[in-house]
Write a sequence for this structure.
């Protein structure tokens, strides 16, 4: 273990006495063979620190803690020396076994997951949750979203959204009727924005295949994509002047394409190819089943993404971006990541964000250059950048993250809304999406605040961790404060959800 981490960790626990490389066998009835890298002592309290490259909790550790609980005055902590994101099962294990997880940065050591946070989460009356669950039986979109959409006024398709909100609230949906109703609205929106059949077909395929995926426990992506679209529309509508100006700056300050048109494509198509990334999980064909995507010009498409990315990073751009700049303005790291993510040998088989992005870029030869460069390419770049697997590769490459909101307004909106929209997501295990619900959405000139309830405290803390990660490590907001408040009603789950 690198020695330079220890002084940094020790300095973070000022006032605590410590010892190094201490054996923990006595705390596990002498049978563990486990050693801590550091043990801190403060009066009667003990904190044993394990320094690891990742924040993952070793399975052998949870096994030992299941067999024998530690004394009340003794706690385990894991210090991660990298910025790798923590997964849900590790958050659950940390809560269940009382393990604190820290992260080392250049300047300090900060708490990443604190099991004690569960005790301080805000609680909601069960009567309020029952009201939301009763709605979820017949409608998947929360009333808070519909009420905001009903007041839309600044977007080119605001009239369509207002009509949708009114008609949606007046209906009682049964079985597949809701998806059919939403799909009709999507078709109307796309007809007026990008009148081609490919985008509509991609969404229709997603909606159809999702029925099979949900039987295998995979969460919804069709309704999710539409709710991401609606949430982004609400934010855009309220802060239209700011987002439009930031978007136009990428094209010399005079984009002929409206940001809401590009947002429509980016949001509705960001998960369009998700079924093909996970085909072996739901198709019944078994492990090893892959999806071979045939791309005629993969390198050209990767270069388009890299060139627009590099152009967008320039805070003040006097010139517009167009596809002819690919040879002169490039970002080799983005190109390399994009090619790797669509490779059949990719660990993600291949990545749905990358193939959704590349599919949009296939329109280069059939659309006018202005539409392709100012509408299609920004949407494709935002789609490519929205996935966490891409973030991991960008972090490894260095100097690519975080993205500035003013430089990447569309990517910011997609990354943020996609990460936030966890409420009511349906699956075969939760067909009505009752494990979470949106309680409130408030937006004003300075902030956007959402309040989300979770049945499982581990999911609530996961949302807090993810929200903080997105706004601190992936994208950096400007002029608008984005907040997410999480609520629970139930006690800590002691058994893992299968």
């Amino acid at each position: 273990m690198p020695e330079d981490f220890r002084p940094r960790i020790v300095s973070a626990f000022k006032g605590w006495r410590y010892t190094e490389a201490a054996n923990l066998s006595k705390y596990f009835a002498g049978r563990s063979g486990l050693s801590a890298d550091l043990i801190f002592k403060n009066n009667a309290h003990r904190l044993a620190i394990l320094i690891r490259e990742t924040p993952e909790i070793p399975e052998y550790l949870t096994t030992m803690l299941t067999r024998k609980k530690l004394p009340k005055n003794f706690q385990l902590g894991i210090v991660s020396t990298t910025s790798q994101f923590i997964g849900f099962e590790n958050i659950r294990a940390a809560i269940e076994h009382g393990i604190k997880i820290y992260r080392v940065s250049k300047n300090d050591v900060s708490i990443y997951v604190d099991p004690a946070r569960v005790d301080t989460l805000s609680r909601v009356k069960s009567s309020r949750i029952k009201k939301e669950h009763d709605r979820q039986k017949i409608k998947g979109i929360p009333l808070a979203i519909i009420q905001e959409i009903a007041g839309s006024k600044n977007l080119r398709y605001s009239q369509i959204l207002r009509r949708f909100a009114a008609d949606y609230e007046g209906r009682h949906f049964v079985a597949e009727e809701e998806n059919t109703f939403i799909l009709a609205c999507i078709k109307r929106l796309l007809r007026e924005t990008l009148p081609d059949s490919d985008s509509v077909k991609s969404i229709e395929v997603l909606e159809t295949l999702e029925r099979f995926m949900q039987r295998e426990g995979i969460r919804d992506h069709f309704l999710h994509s539409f709710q991401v679209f609606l949430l982004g529309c609400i934010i855009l509508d309220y802060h239209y002047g700011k987002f439009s100006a930031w978007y136009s700056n990428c094209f010399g300050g005079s984009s002929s394409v409206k940001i809401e048109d590009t947002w429509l494509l980016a949001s509705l198509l960001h998960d369009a190819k998700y079924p093909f990334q996970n085909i072996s999980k739901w198709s019944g064909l078994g492990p090893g089943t892959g999806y071979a995507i045939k791309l005629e010009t993969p390198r050209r498409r990767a270069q388009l993404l890299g060139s627009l990315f590099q152009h967008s990073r320039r805070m003040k751009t006097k010139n517009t971006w167009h596809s002819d700049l690919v040879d002169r303005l490039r970002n080799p790291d983005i190109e390399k990541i994009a090619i790797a993510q669509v490779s059949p040998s990719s660990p993600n088989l291949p990545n749905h964000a990358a193939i959704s992005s590349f599919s949009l870029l296939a329109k280069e030869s059939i659309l006018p250059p202005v539409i392709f460069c100012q509408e299609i390419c920004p949407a494709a770049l935002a789609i490519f950048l929205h996935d966490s697997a891409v973030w991991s590769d960008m972090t490894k490459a260095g100097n690519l993250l975080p993205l500035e909101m003013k430089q990447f307004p569309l990517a910011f909106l997609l990354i943020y809304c996609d990460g936030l929209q966890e409420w009511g997501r349906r699956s075969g295990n939760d067909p009505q999406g009752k494990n979470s619900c949106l309680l409130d959405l408030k937006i004003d000139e300075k902030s956007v605040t959402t309040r989300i309830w979770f049945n499982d405290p581990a999911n609530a803390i996961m949302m807090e961790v993810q929200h903080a990660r997105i706004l601190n490590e992936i994208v950096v907001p400007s002029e608008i404060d984005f907040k997410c408040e999480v609520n629970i009603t139930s006690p800590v789950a002691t058994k893992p959800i299968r």
About this structure: The longest strand covers residues 35-42.
